Prior knowledge:
30% helix, 12 helices, 529 residues, alpha/beta, 9-stranded mixed β-sheet
Amino acid sequence: xxxxxxxxxxxxxxxxxxxxxxxxxxxxxxxxxxxxxxxxxxxxxxxxxxxxxxxxxxxxxxxxxxxxxxxxxxxxxxxxxxxxxxxxxxxxxxxxxxxxxxxxxxxxxxxxxxxxxxxxxxxxxxxxxxxxxxxxxxxxxxxxxxxxxxxxxxxxxxxxxxxxxxxxxxxxxxxxxxxxxxxxxxxxxxxxxxxxxxxxxxxxxxxxxxxxxxxxxxxxxxxxxxxxxxxxxxxxxxxxxxxxxxxxxxxxxxxxxxxxxxxxxxxxxxxxxxxxxxxxxxxxxxxxxxxxxxxxxxxxxxxxxxxxxxxxxxxxxxxxxxxxxxxxxxxxxxxxxxxxxxxxxxxxxxxxxxxxxxxxxxxxxxxxxxxxxxxxxxxxxxxxxxxxxxxxxxxxxxxxxxxxxxxxxxxxxxxxxxxxxxxxxxxxxxxxxxxxxxxxxxxxxxxxxxxxxxxxxxxxxxxxxxxxxxxxxxxxxxxxxxxxxxxxxxxxxxxxxxxxxxxxxxxxxxxxxxxxxxxxxxxxxxxxx
Length: 529
């Protein structure tokens, strides 16, 4: 839920300056630094402020004693999961999903079998989105709703199998599609979706080739899927179904879904793919089609808001760390060696930050959320001089979206509508060489760009487990009748979130977060501005 904060009054003090970062914390996942400077001259005597929180449906006045109840009511409305019974009058049926057939039944004294397997999730089960009770908005990484940082419970729906289902498994036609770029774990999710569908009793499962393009491109045929076909696809990276960016109009995709008689569509992808899945869900509702559209969040950038992490991120960090360690060895082995590594991160610096923190070998970590300058007394180049004098070598890790304001932007976009970024890695490589040549100091720059290597590999153990659970829960959600939702992990619990709440804006690194503080403590770098 997007929450914005408003103030009334002419006095501009520390509280008012705090309000904008907190608003941005909710909107973007980090506080923006481009707020306007207070121009008020009357700063001696405070004027009482009426602080209000504005959600997309309700305006809250914090002076109202019942503001918490109103906030929670609005929260519950936003995080209520869309269900096919919203448009169809359907009666549930008893689920066909059960693991009791693999268990020894417990019998009572009369030798009558007893149903003791409590493996189902109640529809009223909830998980807390946040668990830290911040005492002050000045606490590191604080995410506050009101100026007093009051504790407000924010509950979301727990994921898992339900006792009641809304589809007859033998009649279900299920489809899986993977969109966007490659990501470790795609095959793991495909595999688990197929396994779980078959556990329910589904016989008709197909894969849509090459993303949304597979719905309309002539010559691309759907691929029949079964346990035997997908059994070992998790042993390789990439996507068994293929991927692509962009796609046809939503109406054309839904025309194809309708023509294929698809009842369940499982969409694996990132921000843009989720937006597409939500548009498909809306169009299906508009046409009153009994179709469950369930997404699974995939992006190595880890930039989808509200969730702990997306699948593929852990593997990407592990692979990125290998590149960082190689840069360290190269720099350490050269006279005045400078290892420079550019890592993926279209709008956020999570991979660069975590790879730097995990490797322990990085001296400078640059991410898009924290502005920096290259030249001048407090610039990065001056610090590199210092590192060569004191250490003899250094390692720099930079996210691909960092420092874009220092480069010329063509304004071009890719097939998904993403802005094509200028190459900060090559720019820094050239700037470093020119700088040290200009001051007459030898510098041996070793530039490594592992961009596609970190996403084309097989999922590691951590991601494989995450993919397994997310894939299983996606099927449970579809059979439970949910649609327009995503299967994810929040606060270490597996939950369902409405897609509308995770596509508002990319998640970004909070410059005041403890994780970034830990990274900067490890690198020992100063502020570069």
